Amino acid sequence: MPIRTALAVLTATTALVLTGLWVGNNVNMLPLGASSNASTYDDLFKVLFSIGTVLFLGIVILLVYSLFRFRRRSGDVSDGLAIEGNLPLEIVWTAIPAVVVLFVGLYSYDIYERMGGMATLNDHMTMDHGAMQQVSVKEGDAAGRVWGGIGVAGMDAAPAGPVLPVEVTAMQFAFIFHYPGSDITSGELHVPTGQQVELRMEARDVIHAFWVPQFRLKQDVIPGQPTVLSFTAIRAGTYPIICAELCGPYHGGMRSNVVVHEPEAYDNWLQQNTPNRTTT
Amino acid sequence: MTLANPSDFDGNLQPQGWLRYFSFSLDHKVIGLQYLVCGFIFYLIGGALAGVIRTELISPISDFVSRETYNEVLTLHGTVMIFLWIVPVVNGAFGNYLIPFYVGARDMAFPRLNAVAFWLIPPAGILLISSYFIAGAAAQSGWTAYPPLSLTTPAAGQVVWILSVLLLGGSSIFGGINFIATILKLRRPGLKLMMLPMYCWAMLGTSILVVLSTPVLAGTLILLSFDIIAHTGFFNPTMGGNVVVYQHLFWFYSHPAVYIMVLPAFGLVSEILPIHARKPLFGYTTMVYSIMAIVFLGLIVWAHHMFTSGTPPWMRLFFTIATSFIAVPTGIKFFNWLATLWGGKIALNSAMLFSCAFIVNFVFGGITGVALAQVPFDIHVHDTYFVVGHFHYIVYGGTVFVIFGSLYHWYPKFTGRLLNEDLGRLHFLLTFVGFNLCFAPQHWLGLNGMPRRVAEYDPAFTTLNQVSSVGALLMAISTLPLLINVVVTAINGKEAGDNPWNALTSEWLTSSPPPVENWHGEAPLVTEPYGYGQHPEVKA
Amino acid sequence: MTSTTPLQDSVAVEAGHSPAGEGHGDFRLFGLATFLVADGMTFAGFFAAYLTFRAVNPLPEGGIYELELLLPTINTVVLIISSFTFHRAGKECRAGQLGASRLWLAITGGLGAIFLAGQMVEYFNLPFSLTDNLFASTFYALTGFHGLHVTLGVICIAIVALQTRQGGRISASDHFGLEAAELYWHFVDGIWVVLYGILYLL
Question: What was the ipTM of the complex prediction?
């Protein structure tokens, strides 16, 4: 390949990669992050976005360039070059995507692990409930078995300390939150910043899903098959909880809120809402 | 030339002319066009349903149709587009028409089976559409029909949906059997497998997927119907059933289904690009191996649709890795297509415009696909408009664009007349702009909190939804130049002659339209379907 | 210019002969075999569902049924023997002994009918019904779907036996119907062996 062409290709590729990196890091496509794993997620997004931009722009530029440079001049009925293949070239453009894909896969494995995705789901020994009771178990499901979700161990910047368990029941068309420790039942989820929360979820009727975009987390809530979702909120505010699995006509309206409090404000909320225990 | 008389036809009663297209014809060319027209009608119906969806989504509240109706509409839209438009057209229409030509045969291996496969479609489609009018409502649990929702919505509509899909799946399986037998057993003497046009390999791979995965869907839907009708508990948690098992069984088919929709399109593009760029297809052997790799991998990645369901961590990881790998053989094909164009003499006619836009759209969809394959990424965007955007870039931006390109490319062969190029370019422009306007914003919507299958949404998303709906309107309008083109061409379209594109494959080495026996005389032996560029002197 | 020969719709031919006119061999069995792969995948889906349910959805106390093994085992033997008798019928046909072939076909059909009768007896005597629990439902679904296939097979055997008579379609040189029915029967037999293993022995 002549030097001029090589230089041109090199410059173009560099410009492309730089553009990709710039777009990935500066074009904001996501809502704000309010959980400890959100920034981890956003790192992954930036990488994917950058790589995607480079690939897409590269291919589009090559295509459009070809359409101009090699367009058929009117009156020309001859054929193009009789090139049927080029094994070395094909090896190169097989190897590079394979390496990129492998890198992306391994990187996202790392991200998933930091999010707590690889944590064992049915091992309650790792959880410290403190004085709180074991989360209630579905009748007949003697093992208290969890069928899927994101566990507690290995959380990004997971703070030491007790995990706050909350039972989530999804039904057509609402979420109900029950705090087993303080016996609070609420239509909204209230959590403190800086403490790991473990949602134990089950549905009453059909499959629903629990999604908080600001946490970057989602988990299906399934009837008869409890699932868990663990997170640590780091930013006070009110964020939407959205049902993300078609559950009937009012699926679009099935929403709630997660209210993240600073710890003192959370304690206040706890105290104000704990039902008075009548002595039996 | 050997012609055999169809023994079960009374020649005197055989319909002639256009009436043939309404008859139980055994001619693969007639059947192919029956599939094409029937499929296109269902495309218009599915498009109308999409129009209802996008009209509802102009405002953030549910104010256009009732919520139940909306769910029925979105269910029907998906089901119609997949099973009555795309699968029948890229497989049944172009496959049936072209494969016998490509293998040098006068018809498919099993012509009667072929006709049966087609004639299952109109009744199944009518059954499905009519379920909309059944008292008590049509199916409204999405084309995925997840239980328990599909067990709690009105039973009659869901059972009709199941029956319809079973018939359509059966049609697809019959077609798959026919393609495999024809490609492997019916090649004319001297025609080796590695001499076949790439579309044959694509159809072979697709048909393998059809035969292996569609029956699993059939079995699953049979079990689901048992749950609805006989009150068994396969997927009913209150009776000890497991809803995630349904998802596994459903997606075992439905993931290969997307390859069943896309691989034939890959094959068609491989035919179109070399002809209009007048260059050989780049890397034939690697293209074949890529198809086979996609077929194999396509069968083992289904649970990437279930990353937020009740699947254990190790399973999520396995499917991430397997899915990511599909990008490699797919990427190879795209680079090979670009290399096919490079150094060619490219005619930017309608066929080529749609095919090149396919490359752009599909690469975009493929990139979001690789992103979706990563578990941690998917957990945020699963079941949101990001996914809706992704798959429309693949099936519409990908396959439908190829269908349109193929229409302009093969229309002269089907009818003997060339479609008008000005109208074609207008069709292309409106479709390309409308499509991107409709589906590009949906990625942002999904990332920022809009779930799918909803009639109401956060008012902050109103503007982008309206942009998307304008795009949908443009897509609807884009159908007009195409329809007008067909009418205008029928009235006084330019005669095409045998081979308007100066192509080398054997469908072009006969008259337009071809005779019943495909060629007068022996079937030509085309050992180099992409032998362009070997005659640098000016061709007459 | 269309050049369709009037009164002729297509060159679809007598089944089995290549429309191209050149000898491609009889690919109808190949087509049937492909179909049986598809049919087998339906069963595979059922098997996968059953095995997953067993692994992942344990039955409640009292929900676990001990299946009687005697009758199903006899049925398995009956079906396996019937594959051999069918094969014998095929041999006789190829040797030109159509009468003997018909006899062996009748025996095969009879064995198939015995299998079905045995299945009925078993159903009648089972302590659980279709909707009792997941295991019951899957049991009936699997064996029922298979039984449907056996029924179809017995009907095919009857038709084929009729076709071996004088003037029928089946002869020593052209007996596609018999070969097809035989392949189908072996398939049904094979599926049963797997089913028996998974459902009764596991």
Answer: 0.92
